[in-house]
Amino acid sequence: MATPEDTPDTKLPQWAQKMNPALRHLLAQFIKFGVIGFVCFFIDWGVLNILVAFFHVNPTMAGTISFLISLVVNYVASMRYVFQHRSDMAQWMELVLFVVCSVIGLGINSGIIWAMTSPFTRAAHPNRAMIILMTNIAKIIATIIVSVWNFVSRKLTIDVPRPGHEEDNTFARRIGLWSLQHGPKKYRTPASEAYKKA
């Protein structure tokens, strides 16, 4: 039975049709992830600027709040349009791995914003315009770095393996199989089956 990776998409440009199927699939995933990330960036960026400019929230706190809001949107859209749920992993473990990877991403995001804005927020007479400018510059840098981290970490942990590699002894498979035997019974259903029922 042919998989999406094995079947050339006639809608793709000639150069893309000639690519290795696995590489073509990865490229398609990355592009879709990028589009979703672009939308989420504007959600993140908009909430961040509203909190900093209009409510005078500390940039690091505002960045954390805006990041978490965009993260929820990113997860729902990514698992629907980019990644596929693993059949060898319980739903609860998928969520745990997503949260762990996201917390690391949040740490990177907040750390960059803090490092680039703290000299201005600690000043005796804070310059609001400079704080807003540096917050936005820091956010752009953080978004690029965290986007790469998010794609790679999710690809390696919660996305289905490449065809022919389902039995590979990877960290994701080992922890996925373990999760099917442990944890709350209600959430031991493989994530793929839970997704089909949703």
Automatic annotation (TrEMBL):
Topology versus the membrane: Multi-pass membrane protein
Q: Which GO terms describe its cellular component?
A: plasma membrane
A GO term (biological process) for this protein?
polysaccharide biosynthetic process
Question: Main localization of the protein?
Answer: membrane
Q: Cite the InterPro entries for this sequence.
A: GtrA_CellWall_Glycosyl (IPR051401), GtrA_DPMS_TM (IPR007267)
**Where, subcellularly, is it found?**
Membrane
Location of the GtrA/DPMS transmembrane domain? 32-156
Question: Which Pfam family, just one, is annotated for this protein?
Answer: GtrA_DPMS_TM
Going by the entry's taxonomy, the superkingdom of the source organism is recorded as Bacteria
Q: Which UniProt keywords apply?
A: Membrane, Transmembrane, Transmembrane helix
Q: Where are the transmembrane segments?
A: 33-55, 61-83, 95-117, 129-152
Q: Which family does it belong to?
A: Belongs to the GtrA family.
* Name of the protein described by the UniProt record: Sugar translocase
